[in-house]
Amino acid sequence: MGQVDLPSPGGCSPHLILPIIKLIVENDEQKGYVREIGFESFLSMGELEMNKALNLWLVDKFNCDSEALELEGGISIPIRPLVKSVLGIPSGPIQVVEGLDVDDALKDQYTVNTRAKYAKDVANEMSSITDKEPFCIAFMMAILGIYLAPNTSLTVNRAFLGAVKQVDKLKEMDWCNFVATYLFKGIKEFKESNTTCVTIKGCVHILSVIFIDFVKDAAFEVPVGFPRLGVVTKKHIKWVVSHPFTSLMVHRPEESVYAAVLDSIAKDNIVKDGKCVDSETNSLSDTPATTDTNQNNNKHRVSGELGTVMPVKPAPCERKKGHNVMDTGNRPIRSAKSRTAEIIIYKCSPQLLPPIMKLITENVEQKGYVGEIGFGSFLSMAEFKMNRALTLWLVDKFNCDTEALEFEGGISIPVRPLVKSVLGIPSGPIQVVEGLYIDNALMDEYTCNGKVKNAWEVANGMCSITDKELFCIAFMMGILGIYLAPSTSVGVNRKLLGSVRQVDKLKEMDWCNFVATYLFKGIKKFKKSKATFVSIKGCVHILSVIFIDFVKHAAFEVPVGFPRLGVVTTKHIKWVLSHPFTSLMVRRPEESIYAAVLDNWPKDNIVEDGKCVTNTDTLSDTFGTTDSDQNKNRHPVSAELGTLPISAVLGPPVTSHNTTSWGIVEYVEVGTSPRSAAPGPFAEQIIFPTSGEQLQSSRPSSEPCSAQMHVSPDNPKEMNRGSTSPMENAGDWSAKKASVDQPSSGQAKRARGVAAVDFNVLNCTVCSYPLNCPVFQCIGRHLACGRCVAELPGEQCQMCEHGSGFSLCPIMDDIVSSAMVECSHDGCKSSVPYHELDDHESACSHAPCYCTEAGCGFIGPPQVLLGHLAALHSMPMHTVNYGKVHRLLASKPRFLLHGQGDDSVFLLVVGALGAAMVVSAVCIRAGASPSYAVKLWVNGPALPSRAAGRIKWKMEAVTSSTRPGEVVVEELPSFLTVPPAYLGWLGASKAVTLDIRIDRM
Asked: CA angle 317-323-326, nearest 5°?
């Protein structure tokens, strides 16, 4: 890390803990309280001491991606799994959550003059507390603030109060992972900071203890015993710091005192001899879990409250193949992006639902509500414990293009048509739409301290709700967040509130396709990700259930019955996991319990022998008229509240070097009033790409141009199975449908259509601004954005003669979100959605700025304006390096400052305020990102009010302006004032010497 003077190793102060503990040990009652909450390891804490040089060296050696100390010789020491062994604190199944609600009275106890109390003061006060609950809260707040999770100010963190006030649950919380995550985030922030003086948050003492335990020297030995915080003491650290750190040899992990712990962790993440030996150990999650015990009798977290987290490091072994046989589950999940360590999370938690459903079943009224909305299948949901190794293996087997699990022997199991049979939830004709408009009151019900509510808390809280509508909304938000559509966090998805609040329509919505699409998108995003820490969104439980149903073995049988989530249980997955993967045969679809379902599924949507033979080419998820398959399940082939006619006639194909297109003879109507066939002067070319391409368009010009829309048959929105295309729903579709030849390779030859669209189509008919999703349409085909519709009297269209209601228009949602236009500013090559164009251009770094000199009409981007002012107007210019102090003589009213590294341009402005001089700075640009802080110093004679002759000023966020010539210093938010005494001291020149430093935030 080099010579480091200013960075601080943080507020972690283990040496302050020992005096506190000594007082507690002398009080039998308080000592008992500490033991009851699981923090008895602190009672035998050794005499500790921090060393700044060692801590900073270790922080430098810490790899934030692998969460390990990376030392010479390729030795990598994972930190997270060793926290339990170092601290000996609880690692239970309940997640430690910051920011939970607490009453003002409790918050006031940890507040002094509106600020948080110092942690040391809290520690001193707690020795006089006799009541268990207040003592335990004070104890936790003190050790968190001083040692386990210290911040930069050495005060208590009142955001922890909501968690620590649950005294009876402290022992069940996962403090190990919380402390580890807090430290790792602190180190990451420290390493990413550009400021000179920065503090490291978190318990950096952990790194010192672990490193000391790994030091290998014949003259140095640390006693055995756990937890290590009671064994590694001040004398050990003194020995280590008396030697050059780089000269010290270190043990390999398998030779260290932690060998047994690391060995058990490793076994939990590999497949050995074809058998899954995963014990569901979650060494990396900060979400609650059930626990398991390793050979060292240390409990480890095995599954999160709302998901599972796992470090995956597959062991290499021979991959065996055979007809109708699965290959082993031990190859890297994303072999194309294989890394030494990947952190993979999924939040789907079926094991959390049965206890909740049991409570609902005991309430006749709530049980009836669940049945009425079509989710009665959850009331008989079986106990099912997810297995990490199987889940990740199945995700690897899932083909995102065919939406199928693909196994050896050419066996392909389509997943989407089986979701109904697995879950038993509604698959009605109404599309589930995210992001519908809702009032603030409902939004606030699912918000806590500015953040989304925890889905688990919502699920627990709903049991006390008696009102039908409120209960059903809470029920849906809970099961969506926990199980059906979990995201990467533990919070509910407030974008779904607009759909779930329509309680009377929940049973008619297509939840099956929504859940399937959400899962498939989550898997696709996971497979494309190059990040080390990555999450899988969606209901991955579906894959496990389907696979278990397809296992073919004489000694294994799963009972019949639907839905399958009430039949396939933990005992079935345990049987599957007890066998080598290579020994398990897989049934063909026609032999499975799902045979009737698959037989009735439209044949053009089935994948056979690994080849996709689907012929559905559409643009939207759900539009057209409703249709029923042979299984009498309705499929969403129309928008929730209306359809959109498309009338277009395809002419003869036109072939170029890379596309085959059909010229549009007739103008396309997309839910608007009839228009002329000829595009207007602001016609736009919008390209809907094939897979992997980026959406692009040309910028509209003032000159008439040929407007085009390129429509890809690759179906970017993955149209629902069983739905018809919009073209087929527009009357006599047979004359309009383009034929596509099937090459011998089995891959369809893709073609493109070209259609004309003008910008007016993409503007709201009410406010005339660009449309944003969700888009609504009235019977008269007038389009409007959601906010405008909500503000219309009775939500009735004012353009129609007799008024008409609005309904959702999904096809326009697709077009609006896909229509990309280029920024008009010279030098900016960004393409943004049309409805975001104004916002982008108003903050674009290439937006034109105006010359500061009166009478000069020059306009140009900041960097061009910089050259113009310096060359033509002889304005002084200085190059500045961020984070460094520069000295200049303020002899003129304006100075240009050129930021080295990102070419930002600043204007230092000098003015007068009475007899005093004022100085400030502005950034010449349109936007406000990134933000900059400016510090100014001016030197002069000592004043009566000051010990030294220096005035310092700091602006936390520099003001931005495209018209810097109109800036008046006195009108800026803040400025440096140079007193008259300083100016008199300078003499007749009044030229002030300024020290300036600019920091890029």
From this structure: 45
In 3-state terms, what secondary structure has residue 993?
A: strand
Lowest-confidence segment of 110-124, 386-400, 811-825 by average pLDDT: 811-825
For 53, 59, 197, 245, the CA distances from 5, given in Å and listed in that order, are 10, 15, 9, 18
Amino acid identity of 461? G
Instruction: Specify the residue for token string 């014990």.
Output: 279
For residue 843, what are the contacts with CB-CB under 8 A and spacing of at least 6? 926, 927, 928, 929
- Give 315-346 as a DSSP string: PP-PPP--TTBPPPS-S-TTGGG--S-EEEEE
Nearest alpha carbon to residue 140 among 131, 148, 130: 148
Q: 3-state DSSP call for residue 679? A: coil
Q: How far apart are CA 659 and CA 669, in angstroms?
A: 24
Q: What is the pLDDT of residue 581?
A: 64
pLDDT of 330 reads 36
Which percentage of the chain shows pLDDT scores above 90? 26
State how far the Cα of 710 lies from the Cα of 752, in Å rounded to an integer: 6
- Residue 125's pLDDT band (boundaries 50, 70, 90)? confident
Among 735, 712, 715, 718, smallest CA distance to 659 is for: 712
Residue 648 structure tokens: 């277009």
Mean pLDDT across 149-166: 88
Q: DSSP assignment, residue 270?
A: -
Task: Work out the angle between the directed axes of helices 205-214 and 234-241 (0-180°, nearest 10).
Answer: 70
Q: Given the DSSP bridges, would you call strands 308-312 and 885-890 parallel, antiparallel or unpaired? A: unpaired
What's the mean pLDDT in 170-189? 93
- The pLDDT of residue 629 is 41
Cβ 51 vs Cβ 208: under 8 Å = yes
280 φ/ψ sector (left φ>0, alpha ψ -120 to 50, else beta): left
**854-882 pLDDT, tens digit each:** 878 788 888 888 888 887 788 888 888 88
- 540 band by pLDDT with thresholds 50, 70 and 90: very high
Confidence (pLDDT) at 284: 31
Query: Which residue stretches of 757-806 are H helix?
Result: 786-791
Q: What share of the chain is helix, strand, coil (3-state, %, to 5)?
A: 35, 20, 45
**Each residue's pLDDT tens digit, 666-700:** 333 333 333 333 333 333 334 333 333 333 333 33
Specify the amino acid at residue 413: I
Residues paired with residue 52 on neighbouring β-strands, in sequence order: none
Query: What's the CA gap between 788 and 783, in Å, rounded?
Result: 10
Q: How far apart are CA 605 and CA 721, in angstroms?
A: 7
**pLDDT over 80 (residue 585):** yes
Question: Helical H runs in 97-171?
Answer: 104-109, 119-126, 132-143, 161-164
Q: Which residues contact 170 (CB under 8 A, 6 or more apart)?
A: 37, 38, 39, 90, 136, 140, 164
Angle of the 388-397 helix axis to the 541-550 helix axis, nearest 10:
80
Inter-residue contact 151 to 96 (CB < 8 Å) = no
**Core vs surface per residue 43-66: b (16+ CB within 10 A) or e:** eebbebebbeebbbbbbebbebeb
Distances (CA, A) of 359 to 93, 479, 678: 21, 14, 64
Identify whether the C-beta of residue 771 lies closer than 8 Å to the C-beta of residue 733: no
Query: What is the b/e burial string over 872-882, where b = at least 16 CB atoms within 10 angstroms of the residue's CB?
Result: eeebbeeebeb
The pair of structure tokens assigned to 396 is 């690897």
pLDDT value at 802 more than 80: no
845 vs 731, more confident: 845
